[in-house]
Amino acid sequence: MSTEYVILIHDDESAWVDPSPELRAATYARHDEFARLAAAEGHRITGGGELHKTFTARVVRPGATPDQALVTDGPFAELAEQVGGYYVVESSDLDGLVRALATAFAGSPESFEIRPVVSEAEHAAGQDASADVAGVGA
């Protein structure tokens, strides 16, 4: 059975303020290689994209009423790495998906966080999806 995963791509966005053509080409080539490897190994990329810089973000903290929401510009926290993009991938082989990322991005500064998406069936069943994924659920 296939599971849907979101892969969050973490990187230092300061490197992308004015990237050289060589850096841009090398990075995009690694993403192309990941897409090729993923397809070859039976993983299906169903979505994804590059995100704008964190200074374009809006953080919304809902209040007790809509009028009490706190809205701030820019990132919530100053971090060395920011989420700069993401993939949505369907796969029945998490270890294979990890291998495809590790192979395509060997030697690159990015890091990747792979998280399973809670399925509609899990919602409907009221299951603790994170416990099931960790192997400690019902």
What is the tally of helical segments? 4
List segments where confidence is low: pLDDT < 50 over at least 5 consecutive residues: none
What does the largest sheet look like?
4 strands, antiparallel
Shape: flat
Strand order of the largest sheet: 2-5-1-6
- Bin the helical content: 25-40%
What does this structure look like?
With 138 residues, the protein is α+β, with helices and mostly antiparallel strands. Helix content is 30%, strand content 29%. It is built from four helices and six strands, in the order βαββββαβαα. Helix 1 runs antiparallel to helix 2. The protein is flat and about 50 Å long. 8% of the residues are buried. The model has no long low-confidence stretch (mean pLDDT 88).
Topology of helices and strands:
Blueprint (H helix, E strand, L loop, with lengths): L2 E9 L9 H20 L3 E7 L7 E4 L8 E4 L8 E10 L2 H11 L6 E6 L3 H6 L3 H5 L5
Antiparallel strand pairs: 1-5, 1-6, 2-5, 3-4
Helix pairs in contact: 1-2
Short structural description:
By secondary structure, this protein is of the alpha+beta class. It has helices at residues 21-40, 94-104, 120-125, 129-133, and strands at residues 3-11, 44-50, 58-61, 70-73, 82-91, 111-116.
Which tags fit this structure?
4 helices; flat; alpha+beta; two-stranded antiparallel ribbon; 6 strands; 138 residues; four-stranded antiparallel β-sheet; 30% helix
